[in-house]
Write a structure and sequence with these properties.
The structure holds two protein chains of two kinds. Chain A is mostly helical. In chain A, 74% of the residues lie in helices and 3% in strands. Chain A is built from two helices and two strands. Chain A has helices spanning 21-81, 95-130, and strands at residues 89-90, 93-94. In chain A, strands 1-2 form a two-stranded antiparallel ribbon. In chain A, a hairpin with a 2-residue loop joins strand 1 and strand 2 (93-94). The longest helix of chain A is centred in the middle third of the chain and has 61 residues, at 21-81. Chain A is rod-shaped. Chain A starts with 20 loop residues before the first helix and ends with a helix. In chain B, strands 1, 2, 3, 4, 5, 6 and 7 form a seven-stranded antiparallel sheet that branches. Classes of the chains: A mainly alpha, B alpha+beta. Chains A and B meet through helix 1 and helix 2 of A and helix 5, helix 10, helix 12, helix 21 and helix 23 of B.
Chain lengths: 131, 586
C-alpha cells in the first residue's frame, strides 16, 4: 500500500532543485538499451533455435525430394536396364503409361499432404518450444 | 469446323475475361486495400488462380501433340509440370511467401542485399518470360487459324492486344477470379469432351493406339497448308491433286491422278491434296521423326530421332522439376497468400488441381494417335486436341465440343500470357524504365511485342518443347538462387551473380541454338536440345564455390532474413513483430 499523502516539505529550507538533464538522458538510454540488448540477445539465442528449425525443415524437404528422386528418377534407369518392363501390361495399360499417366498424380498429392502435415507439426513444436 | 462456332467461342472467352477482370477490379477497389482484399481469398480460389495461370498452351495443346508423335517418353512433360509444384512446395513455398517478395528480383535483392544481383535477376525474368510467351502466341495463331480459317498471325495478335489492354488498364493485374475462372474453364473444356470421345472410341471397337505404326483408319484426304517435305516409310499409292515431287526430281502437277509414293523423301506445294487409302501408313513431316510401331508405347525408344534418350529424359526431368519455382509468373501468385502456412496449403490444393487436369492430355494424345495421324504429315501436332471432337463425334455435337475445346485453349493462352506479361512488364517498368504507371503500360506493350514478332517466324516450333526450354533456363538460374538463398546462409552477392550469369547464360545460349534450328547429331545435339542436366549442376557449383571464396561478402542482415524466411507465423507476434515485449516477458 502506498501513502497518497506526499511527505511534508520543510518550509524553512530553500526549495530543492532537481537536476534533470543528465539523469533524464541516462534514463532514456536505460529505457532503450535493454530493448536493443534484448533484441541482440534474442537474435543470438533465437539464432540457435532458428538454425535447428531450419535444419529440421530442410531435412524434411530433402527427404521428400529424395523419395521422389529414387522412385521417379530411378524409373527411366530401371527401364533402361530392364527394357521388357516397358511392354508389360498391367490393368490393360502398359506399365509406363499406368505409372506416369495415372498413378504418379495421386502419389504426388499424398506426398504433398504428408509433407504439409509434418512441416506444420514441426512449426507447432518450435512455437511451443520458444514460448 | 464452321467458323461461326469458333469465332463465338473465342469472343465469349475474351468477353468473359475482360468482364470478370473489370468487375473484380471494381470490387477490390471498393473493399479497402487492394492487397488485403486479395489476401482474404480462400486457398481453393487462390489455388484455382495459380492453376489457371500455370496451365498454358503447352499443357492444353502441346502435351497431347507430343504424345501423338513420340509416345511414352512425352509422359514426363505433364509429370514434370506437376512434380515441379511438389519441389516448390517442400523447398520454397512457405519461406518465399514469408520473404514478402513480390517478384524474383525483389527476392534476389532482399536476400543478397545487392542491386547488381537484382538487375541480373530482372534480365533473366524478361528472358524466361519472352521464351514462355513465344509458344503461347504460336499456339494462339494455330488455334485461331484452325477455328476460323483466319491467317496465322491473327491469333497471336488477338492474344497480344487483349493481354496488353487488360494488363495496361489494370483489369487483370492480380485479379484472382479471372485466373480461377480460367482454370475451371480449361478443366471443363478437356474433361467434358473426353467423355464423349471415349464413348465414341468404345463404340468404334476400342482400337488400341499402340498396335503398330500410325495408319489412316479410313480413306483420308489431307490438304497441305504449307509447302511440305515429308518422308514415306512404306510405299503407298495415293491420289494427288496439286504439285508433288520426289527428292531430286522436278515437280509434276497432278489432277486427281494416282501416284505411287515410293520409300523416300517427297515434297508437295501449298494446297496440294493427297488421298490415302484406308490402312495406309502415314508419312511424316521431315524433321518430326515420330516413333513407329511398338516404339510408341515404350519409353526410351529414341523417338523424334533424338539420340541418347536416357540423357534427354533425365535432363527434361531436371528442368521441369526444378524450373517451376523459377518461373516469374508463379511467384507473383504466391504473394496473394496471407502467410507462409497458407502458401503451403494453397500449393497442396494446386497439386490436386494439376493432377486432375494432367490425366486428360494423355488420353487426348493416345486417341489422336488413332484418329488424327494425318497431323504427322502436316506437322500440326499441336492441333490434335482441337481436331479430335470433330473427327470422333461429328455433327452439331462435335461442333459444340470443338467450340468448347477452342474456348479452353484460348483461355490457356490468355491466362498464361497475361500472368507472364504482368511479371515481365513489372520488371521492365521498375528496373529499365522509371516505374510510373505510364511506364508500366509501355512496358506491357513491349513485353508482348517482342515475343509476338518472334512468333511470326517460329510457326514450326512445338509449343511444349519451347516451354520445356523456358523451364531449363529457370532451373539453371533462379532455382539455385532460391534454394541456396533460402537454405544456406553462406550465399554471397558475388556467388549469386556468378551463378546466375553462368547458369542462365549457358542455358540461354543452348536454347537459342536449338530454337534457331541448328541441327546437330550425337551428343552435341542432345546436350544442346536438353541443357538442364549440365547447366543446373554448373550453376549450383559456381554459386557455391564463388560464395565460399568470398565469405566477407555475406549479406550483413542474413540472420534477420533467415528469421523472416523461416520463423513460423505461430510465433511471429511475439518473436518478430514485437521482439522486445516477448524478451521482457521471458
Amino acid at each position: 500500500m502506498t501513502d497518497p499523502q506526499p511527505p511534508p516539505v520543510p518550509s524553512t529550507q530553500p526549495g530543492r532543485v532537481r537536476v534533470v538533464s543528465p539523469r533524464s538522458s541516462a534514463a532514456r538510454a536505460a529505457a532503450h538499451r535493454p530493448v536493443r540488448r534484448e533484441i541482440d540477445e534474442q537474435t543470438i539465442v533465437g539464432d540457435v533455435y532458428m538454425r535447428s528449425l531450419v535444419r529440421l525443415q530442410l531435412r524434411l524437404a530433402v527427404g521428400v525430394c529424395l523419395i521422389f528422386a529414387v522412385l521417379l528418377g530411378g524409373f527411366p534407369l530401371v527401364l533402361a536396364l530392364q527394357p521388357q518392363l516397358g511392354s508389360l501390361h498391367v490393368l490393360g495399360l502398359p506399365l509406363p503409361w499406368l505409372l506416369l499417366g495415372v498413378l504418379v498424380y495421386p502419389s504426388l498429392v499424398v506426398a504433398a499432404w504428408l509433407y504439409v502435415r509434418q512441416a506444420e507439426r514441426n512449426e507447432r513444436d518450435f512455437a511451443d518450444l520458444v514460448q | 469446323m464452321s467458323a461461326a462456332y469458333g469465332v463465338t467461342a473465342v469472343a465469349v472467352v475474351i468477353a468473359a475475361t475482360v468482364l470478370i477482370g473489370t468487375f473484380a477490379l471494381r470490387l477490390s477497389r471498393t473493399t479497402s486495400d487492394f492487397y488485403v482484399a486479395s489476401r482474404s481469398v480462400s486457398p481453393v480460389w487462390n489455388a484455382s488462380a495459380i492453376g489457371g495461370e500455370y496451365l498454358s498452351a503447352a499443357s492444353f495443346l502441346g502435351v497431347a501433340g507430343l504424345i501423338l508423335a513420340y509416345g511414352a517418353d512425352m509422359l514426363w512433360f505433364p509429370v514434370g509440370y506437376t512434380a515441379g509444384y511438389l519441389v516448390l512446395l517442400v523447398l520454397v513455398a512457405a519461406p518465399l511467401r514469408r520473404s514478402g517478395a513480390y517478384t524474383l528480383p525483389d527476392f534476389a535483392e532482399a536476400r543478397t542485399e545487392s542491386l547488381t544481383v537484382r538487375r541480373i535477376a530482372s534480365i533473366l525474368v524478361v528472358t524466361i518470360g519472352w521464351l514462355y510467351l513465344l509458344p503461347q502466341l504460336v499456339g494462339a495463331g494455330l488455334t485461331v487459324t484452325l477455328a476460323t480459317g483466319a491467317p496465322r498471325w491473327l491469333g497471336g495478335l488477338l492474344v497480344a492486344v487483349v493481354v496488353v489492354f487488360s494488363v495496361a488498364t489494370g483489369g487483370m493485374r492480380s485479379i484472382t477470379f479471372v485466373q480461377a475462372f480460367q482454370y475451371w474453364l480449361k478443366l471443363t473444356a478437356l474433361a467434358v469432351p473426353v467423355l464423349f470421345l471415349l464413348l465414341a472410341w468404345h463404340a468404334d471397337g476400342s482400337p488400341s493406339p499402340g498396335d503398330g505404326a500410325a495408319t489412316f483408319p479410313e480413306r483420308t484426304t489431307v490438304r497441305l497448308a504449307d509447302d511440305t517435305t515429308f518422308v514415306v516409310r512404306t510405299a503407298v499409292a495415293v491420289r494427288v491433286t496439286g504439285r508433288l515431287s520426289e527428292a531430286g526430281s522436278p515437280p509434276a502437277t497432278y489432277d486427281a491422278r494416282r501416284v505411287p509414293l515410293t520409300r523416300g523423301t517427297w515434297s508437295a506445294t501449298d494446297g496440294t491434296r493427297l488421298t490415302f487409302p484406308a490402312g495406309a501408313m502415314v508419312p511424316h513431316l521431315r524433321g518430326l521423326e515420330p516413333s513407329a510401331g511398338a516404339e510408341w508405347t515404350r519409353p526410351l525408344s529414341g523417338a523424334g530421332g533424338r539420340d541418347h534418350p536416357l540423357y534427354a529424359t533425365y535432363s527434361l526431368i531436371l528442368a521441369l522439376f526444378f524450373g517451376t519455382m523459377g518461373l516469374p509468373h508463379v511467384l507473383v501468385r504466391f504473394y496473394t497468400n496471407p502467410d507462409g502456412r497458407a502458401a503451403r496449403r494453397t500449393t497442396l490444393v494446386v497439386l490436386c488441381l494439376l493432377g486432375a487436369f494432367y490425366l486428360l492430355p494423355t488420353v487426348y494424345g493416345a486417341l489422336a494417335r488413332v484418329y488424327t495421324p494425318d497431323l504427322l504429315l502436316t506437322g500440326r501436332i499441336d492441333t490434335a486436341v482441337l481436331l479430335l471432337p470433330q473427327r470422333l463425334v461429328g455433327g452439331t455435337g462435335g461442333q459444340l465440343l470443338t467450340a468448347l475445346v477452342t474456348a479452353g485453349a484460348f483461355a490457356a493462352f490468355l491466362s498464361t500470357s497475361s500472368g507472364l506479361t504482368v511479371s515481365v512488364a513489372g520488371v521492365l517498368s521498375q528496373d529499365v524504365l522509371r516505374g510510373s504507371v505510364r511506364d508500366f503500360r509501355l512496358a506491357a506493350a513491349l513485353a508482348v511485342t517482342v515475343p509476338f514478332v518472334l512468333s511470326l517466324g517460329a510457326a514450326s516450333l512445338n509449343v511444349a518443347d519451347v516451354v520445356g526450354l523456358a523451364f531449363a533456363v529457370a532451373a539453371s538460374s533462379f532455382c539455385p538462387l532460391l534454394l541456396l538463398g533460402i537454405w544456406w546462409r553462406g550465399l554471397t552477392d558475388l556467388g549469386a551473380t556468378a551463378g546466375l550469369l553462368t547458369g542462365g547464360g549457358l542455358a540461354t545460349a543452348a536454347v537459342s541454338v536449338t530454337i534457331a534450328g541448328i541441327d546437330r547429331d550425337g551428343w552435341a545435339g542432345a546436350l544442346l536440345a536438353q541443357p538442364a542436366a549440365w547447366t543446373v549442376p554448373i550453376a549450383f557449383a559456381v554459386m557455391v564455390v564463388v560464395s565460399l571464396c568470398t565469405p566477407h561478402r555475406v549479406a550483413p542482415g542474413v540472420a534477420r532474413t533467415m528469421v523472416r524466411l523461416h520463423a513460423p507465423e505461430l510465433v511471429e507476434l511475439r518473436d518478430r513483430s514485437a521482439p522486445s515485449r516477448s524478451a521482457r516477458q521471458s
